[in-house]
Structure formats: C-alpha cells, structure tokens
Task: structure prediction
Amino acid sequence: MQFTKDAMPGIVDGSVTVTFRNWKKAQARPGGRHRIWGQLIEVDDVRAVAASDITDADARRAGATSAAAVLERLGGATVAPIWRIDFHHVGPDDRIALRSTPAMSDDERADIRRRLDRMDASSRAGVWTAKTLRLIDTYPGMVSTALARQLGHDRPAFKINVRKLKELGLTESLEVGYRLSPLGEAFIHRSVGD
Result:
C-alpha cells in the first residue's frame, strides 16, 4: 500500500488508522505488514464497503476532512468496490536497523548467500542477484530503466528483484535509483564472486 508523505505524521501518532482504496480486488489482508516512508504498519481489517457507508468520522480517521473528500479522491461515489482497510502503526521500518549494520557473522553471511542462491535458482531469468548488486554498487543513483537495460531486463521485473534485495537489507532506494546499504557493501565486498 502506498501513502503520500503528508499522511505519515498522522499514521505515526495514531490519528490516521483507516484508508479507503478502489481496488478491483483486495490487495491487503489482515495481519499483513507494509513498509511506507520508513515506517511499518499492520493491517487489522479489510472489507468492501458502499460509498454511503463512509462517514465523516471514518474520513477523519483516514486523514481527510469529510466522506465527500474521500470519495472525490477515489474518483466519485460510483466507484465500486471500495475497500476499507483498518491498520495500526507498528514502528520504524525493520529493514533500517538491518541494513545499517555493516558487521556480520560468518553464519549471517552464509544465510544471506543461501537466500540469494535460492532467488537465483527460482528465477526464470537465471542468476541475477550478484549481477544486480554489482551494478548498483558501480552505479549508485542511476535510474532503474538504465540499470535494467544493462542487465537485459524490463524495468518492472528489475524493480521487483531490487525489492527482494531490499527485503534482505542489502539495498536502499534513493530519490533516483538505488545504492547498497552498509550491510550490502559489507556483503558484496566480501562475498560476491566467492
């Protein structure tokens, strides 16, 4: 789930605990966790609602001024289905602490290597993890389209792969492109090509 940055203070202080989406089908589930703007939220409830079910009180819990403002953001009262997602703030994105730690034990290094090997083995594109890490290390901040082209991948597939590396704490997103995290740098300079 994506939120605008201006919603984050309300999410963090607990005044924003609901969002409404006009998805064709539910794209969140109770218990699911989502990382947004350096924070982590957990979904409590997901259900389809009618436009008439959205109250002004619900809208305020979604960070809007009124039910009419919520419906306008969704494209009007005729949008169907409308999904109501109740959530709570868990805390800072758990990957931040992970990726900020450049030191790793041999067991942690081996665990990352096993996970990368599994990603490579299950990929239809073949071995990609080491190539992607090297490319990001060589060209930090380069636009994803150019990085993807260098690997012969399309941009959406490349971005999905980089997200997998980010989940391991190895990369960080920049305004444009990516860079290796301290953990990623420690791993690649000690491991890639072993």
